[in-house]
Design goal:
221 residues, alpha/beta, five-stranded parallel sheet, globular
Length: 221
């Protein structure tokens, strides 16, 4: 079974994807990690984030091991990493370089320890439209920009990252605009995706609602 979960930043994709992967004993692939890895490497190398050719070169050289190494950097999950990922993910050359790696995972999904899995949960922004268009179940998770900004702000504060709620909201709105207007795979739900608004949900309610939807689809199959 392949499940895709797309949506904007801090909508609740990661929490839901990890929970569903655990619940159904499926592998978990956070596709945002590949773009964060490329973006962060650009930042660390002091390269211009507008340089598509430089970003493509890094994308072509990216390995799973290198991605995991970069994921341990303090800026990987910070707003710096998020903004860099959003910028490089808009490049068609970068997306093409990373697409095959993401698609191959659905054919041979494995857990973190390398053991085979009977399916996977994808967490990203175009997994239901581009990466796995034939996925069994697709979700598009949304929440208001204000709710998402507050969630991300609390995450940053908990991690000791100094910022302001105003700045987080401004950055989020800028990122939403860039992601929705990019020529390469703009952020939008697949035609057959289930829209899940988490604005007024806590994590437990979000997970319960998603499981209910999945079980209904499985029983109808």
């Amino acid at each position: 079974m392949i499940i895709t979960i797309d949506g904007p930043a801090a909508a609740g994709k990661g929490t839901l994807a990890a929970a569903l992967a655990k619940h159904y004993k499926l592998a978990y692939f956070d596709t945002g990690m590949v773009y964060r890895a490329v973006g962060l490497q650009m930042v660390l190398d002091k390269l211009n984030l507008s340089d598509e050719n430089a970003a493509e070169k890094i994308a072509k050289q990216l390995t799973f091991e290198k991605m995991m190494e970069l994921s341990r950097h303090p800026d990987f999950r910070s707003d710096i990493g998020g903004q860099a990922a959003s910028k490089v993910s808009a490049f068609s050359k970068v997306r093409a370089a990373l697409l095959k790696m993401q698609q191959n995972f659905s054919l041979n999904p494995v857990f973190a320890d390398g053991t085979p899995a009977n399916g996977a949960v994808y967490d990203g922004r175009d997994t239901g439209t581009v990466v796995c268009p034939d996925a069994d179940i697709k979700f598009f998770v949304i929440a208001s920009a204000e709710v998402r900004a507050e969630r991300r702000y609390k995450e940053f504060i908990a991690k000791g990252i100094k910022t302001t709620l105003k700045k987080v909201l401004e950055d989020m709105l800028e990122r939403d605009k860039r992601d929705s207007e990019r020529a390469a795979a703009p952020l939008k739900p697949a035609k057959d995706a289930v829209l899940l608004d988490t604005s007024n949900m806590n994590a437990e309610q979000e997970i319960a609602e998603a499981v209910k939807i999945i079980e209904t689809k499985i029983n109808k199959a």
